[in-house]
Write a structure and sequence with these properties.
The protein contains six helices and two strands, in the order βαααααβα. It has about 130 residues and is mainly alpha-helical. It has one domain.
């Protein structure tokens, strides 16, 4: 891995917009009726995002344990996107840009880890009887 920092004004990243969109979507989920999952209705198995609405409701109720139980991967993804977007906002405010370059082996390892995390999350959802 190779890291470098560049000085100078960076454009406001789209990730900051995503952070606002996530909180907006969570707010809409709080007040919307329960959704019907077509994948679950057809196959009988939970989809990869099964429990995301319940996790959003638990978030608004302040129940962090239930939020993670409903769908850990969606919660980790949203938290990661939030902190990444916050970092991008700091880059914009303080006029710097962090550049990370990964070699092929590290990038392949990260991709494999992502596949394993998605499979483990789906297995968790199936075993927990969603």
């Amino acid at each position: 891995m190779n890291a470098s920092i560049q000085k100078g004004r960076q454009s406001l990243s789209i990730h900051v917009v995503w952070m606002v969109i996530i909180f907006g979507v969570l707010a809409v989920y709080k007040f919307s009726p329960p959704a019907i999952c077509v994948f679950h209705e057809v196959t009988g198995y939970p989809c990869l995002s099964c429990g995301a609405t319940r996790a959003a409701n638990a978030f608004f109720e302040g129940d962090l344990t239930s939020m993670i139980y409903f769908n850990p991967l969606v919660v980790m993804f949203c938290a990661g996107l939030f902190f990444f977007s916050l970092f991008k906002l700091l880059e914009f405010i303080f006029n710097f840009k962090l550049i990370l370059r990964f070699d092929r082996k590290t990038a392949l390892g990260a991709r494999l880890l992502l596949v394993v995390m998605v499979a483990a999350n789906w297995l968790f959802l199936i075993v927990s009887g969603r």
